[in-house]
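ping. complex inputs:
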Amino acid sequence: EPEVTQTPSHQVTQMGQEVILRCVPISNHLYFYWYRQILGQKVEFLVSFYNNEISEKSEIFDDQFSVERPDGSNFTLKIRSTKLEDSAMYFCASGDGRELFFGEGSRLTVL
Amino acid sequence: AQKVTQAQTEISVVEKEDVTLDCVYETRDTTYYLFWYKQPPSGELVFLIRRNSFDEQNEISGRYSWNFQKSTSSFNFTITASQVVDSAVYFCALSEAVGGATNKLIFGTGTLLAVQP
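pong. complex structure:
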């Protein structure tokens, strides 16, 4: 069964470092998303991406964040200069217009 | 603005009991979608159901059933004869329909279900 894959599963980084989280969506999907879940809290929308551009972003998605689909298959989330409060599980999702399928998440720990 | 409320933070039941997880939503849209996801201790988000706002029929899938009541803006989830493997956090989510397609999901705060043997 097709699935969304995310790498790395866990990354530990120092505050101020750049981090890139990678996602391979399901191949025939057109809608891509990043969500964040701080430990013990709800899942929060960060950004949606459609037709090779950002379609919507939340207040959380500030200038520190960027997304790219560099090669037509990968979908990346970059955090330019990480802060302690960026520590969270980051979920990538892809959708076919009906359902959203989530990856297993990338846990980011900022020290 | 869209909002999803899951008032039950934690529920603990004994195996084989039935349990209902509540979900109340707010939206100004006339067309929207409602979802339930399961997040087991391993952390992934597992899709359970998607419901269209025009379809108020209740749905049953094995031990799972969902009751959608537009009049009370609720989309409750019942697990019949609960099992230890049902222990997880359950999230209700809402999406506006953009051009008929599912848009971003707005999640509730989740309900932690603990099923004791």
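The two ends of chain B are 41 Å apart (CA to CA).
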